C-alpha cells in the first residue's frame, strides 16, 4: 500500500499518498488481489463491472502524485457517479442473494424469543437443509464478528452463511445444530475423559476466534451446541445476551468487561460445571471456591480450572492455546477401585463418617475404661 514516492523518500509524503493507498484497496476489493506491476483492470477480472471503475483505480494509482486525485472528495464523487450509472448502489449482490435464499425457505418453528433477539428454524425447500435465522434489534452489535466468521471455518465454531443489518435489526443465517446444546446435557457430573474431550473442543474453537481478534463475550452452555455427529460448535459470538432478570450470570467475569480474559473465565466456569454439575461458589472476597462432591478430579485439571477463574484477569491464562496444550497433557485415566470407592463419598457423607467415627471411638474408649476397672476389681 506504499506509494512510489513513499518508498523512495518519506519526506515527500503528503495527503496524495493516502489517495494511492485507497486506490490499492479499491483495486483489491474489485479484483480480489492487490495490484502488481502489471495489474488487471477491474473490468478485465469481472466484465460486469463498469469501465468507470478502471479509470478511478488507474487515476488513484498514478506514480506521479500530481496526476492522482488531489482531494479524497473528488475520488468519492466519481465513485458515487459510476455506482449510480451502473446501478451498483441500488442493491448489492449479497442483498439479492439473501433475498433469494429467504424466498426459497419455509418457516418451521420459533426456537427462542427474547428482549433483544428472536431465533427461527427454516428449511431450504430446494435441498431440505435446515438453517437458523437469528434477528437482533441491536443492528451494530455482533455484525462485524458475524461477517468475519461467515468467511471462516473451524470444526468447533458454528458455520455462518451470511449477516446483514439495517437501521433497525441485525439478521444472521447459520447452520442448525441438531444435537442440542450443552445446557441440555448438564444433568450430572461428567466422567473426566468425556469432560476433557469437550474442554479441548471449546479451547480449540476459542483459540481460533481469539487469534482472529473475535471475542465471544457471552459464553455459556446454551450457546455451546452439537451437530448430528456430536461435534461441539460454539455459537452467538459477540451477540446480545439473553436477558433473565431472575437469573444470575455465573459466567461473567468479575471485571464485567468484554475481553479475551473474560472468555477464559467463562470457559473455566463451564469446565467446572462439566466435572461437578454445580453452580460456582465464591467466598466473601469474591474468590472462586472449588466444591467437588466426588473428590476425584485430577489435581492437574483442578489447578488448570482454578487458574482460569481467578479474580484478576492478569492472573488467568492469557490464551486458549496454552489451555488446550495443558488439557492435552491431563491424565484422565479411571481411578483405582479403592479411589473409586472413596470418589463416591460426597461432602455430606464425609461429615457423617467423621461424626459416627468419633462416636465409635468414644464408645470404644469408654468400653476399654470399663474393662480396666472391672479387671482391677
Structural class: alpha+beta
CATH architecture assignment name of the largest domain:
Orthogonal Bundle
- Beta-strand percentage? 5-15%
How many separate domains make up the residues? 4
| CATH H-level homologous superfamily name of the largest domain | Transferase(Phosphotransferase) domain 1
Largest sheet: 5 strands, antiparallel
Helix content bin: 40-55%
Average pLDDT metric:
82
Number of helices: 13
Low-confidence segments, given as residue ranges, are 88-93, 334-348
Say how many strands there are: 9
Please state the CA-atom Rg, rounded to the nearest Å.
30 Å
* H/E element order: HHHHHHEEEHEEHEEHEEHHHH
Could you explain the architecture of this structure?
- This protein folds into four domains: 4-86, Transferase(Phosphotransferase), domain 1; 93-175, Phosphorylase Kinase, domain 1; 182-329, Transferase(Phosphotransferase), domain 1; 346-376.
- The chain is elongated, with a radius of gyration of 30 Å.
- The chain has a five-stranded antiparallel β-sheet.
- It has 13 helices and nine strands.
- Helix 2 (15-31) packs antiparallel against helix 4 (51-60).
- 25% of the residues are buried.
- The longest helix is centred in the C-terminal third of the chain and has 30 residues, at 347-376.
- Mean pLDDT is 82; it is low at 88-93 and 334-348.
- It has helices spanning 4-8, 15-31, 42-45, 51-60, 72-86, 93-103, 143-150, 192-211, 260-276, 299-308, 320-329, 337-343, 347-376; strands at 105-113, 117-124, 130-136, 160-165, 170-175, 224-226, 232-234, 281-282, 288-289.
- With 377 residues, the chain is an alpha+beta fold.
Amino acid at each position: 500500500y506504499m506509494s512510489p514516492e513513499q518508498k523512495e523518500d518519506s519526506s515527500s509524503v503528503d495527503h496524495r499518498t493516502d489517495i494511492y493507498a485507497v486506490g490499492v484497496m479499491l483495486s483489491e476489493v474489485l479484483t480480489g488481489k492487490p495490484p502488481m506491476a502489471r495489474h488487471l483492470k477491474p473490468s478485465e477480472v469481472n466484465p460486469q463491472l463498469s469501465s468507470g471503475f478502471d479509470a478511478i483505480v488507474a487515476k488513484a494509482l498514478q506514480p506521479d502524485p500530481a496526476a492522482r486525485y488531489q482531494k479524497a472528495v473528488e475520488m468519492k464523487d466519481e465513485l458515487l457517479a459510476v455506482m449510480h450509472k451502473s446501478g451498483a448502489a441500488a442493491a448489492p449482490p449479497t442483498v439479492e442473494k439473501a433475498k433469494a435464499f429467504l424466498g426459497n425457505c419455509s418457516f418451521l418453528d420459533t426456537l427462542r424469543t427474547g428482549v433483544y433477539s428472536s431465533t427461527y428454524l427454516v428449511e431450504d425447500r430446494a435441498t431440505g437443509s435446515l438453517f437458523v435465522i437469528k434477528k437482533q434489534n441491536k443492528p451494530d452489535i455482533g455484525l462485524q464478528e458475524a461477517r468475519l466468521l461467515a468467511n471462516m471455518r473451524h470444526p468447533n465454531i458454528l458455520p455462518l452463511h451470511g449477516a446483514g443489518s439495517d437501521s433497525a435489526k441485525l439478521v444472521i443465517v447459520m447452520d442448525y445444530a441438531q444435537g442440542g446444546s450443552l445446557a441440555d446435557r448438564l444433568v450430572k457430573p461428567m466422567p473426566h475423559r468425556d469432560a476433557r474431550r469437550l474442554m479441548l473442543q471449546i479451547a480449540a474453537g476459542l483459540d481460533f476466534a481469539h487469534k482472529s481478534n473475535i471475542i465471544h463475550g457471552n459464553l455459556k452452555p446454551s450457546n455451546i451446541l452439537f451437530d448430528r455427529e456430536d461435534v461441539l460448535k460454539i455459537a452467538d459470538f459477540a451477540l446480545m445476551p439473553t436477558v433473565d432478570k431472575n437469573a444470575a450470570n455465573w459466567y461473567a467475569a468479575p471485571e464485567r468487561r468484554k475481553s479475551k480474559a473474560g472468555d477464559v473465565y467463562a470457559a473455566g466456569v463451564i469446565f467446572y460445571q462439566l466435572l461437578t454439575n454445580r453452580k460456582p461458589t465464591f467466598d466473601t472476597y469474591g474468590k472462586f471456591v472449588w466444591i467437588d462432591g466426588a473428590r476425584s478430579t485430577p489435581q492437574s485439571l483442578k489447578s488448570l480450572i482454578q487458574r482460569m477463574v481467578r479474580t484478576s484477569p492478569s492472573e488467568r491464562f492469557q490464551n486458549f492455546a496454552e489451555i488446550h496444550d495443558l488439557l492435552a497433557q491431563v491424565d484422565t485415566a479411571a481411578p483405582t477401585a479403592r479411589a473409586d470407592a472413596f470418589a463416591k463419598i460426597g461432602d455430606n457423607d464425609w461429615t457423617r463418617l467423621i461424626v459416627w467415627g468419633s462416636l465409635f471411638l468414644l464408645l470404644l474408649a469408654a468400653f476399654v475404661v470399663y474393662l480396666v476397672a472391672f479387671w482391677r476389681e
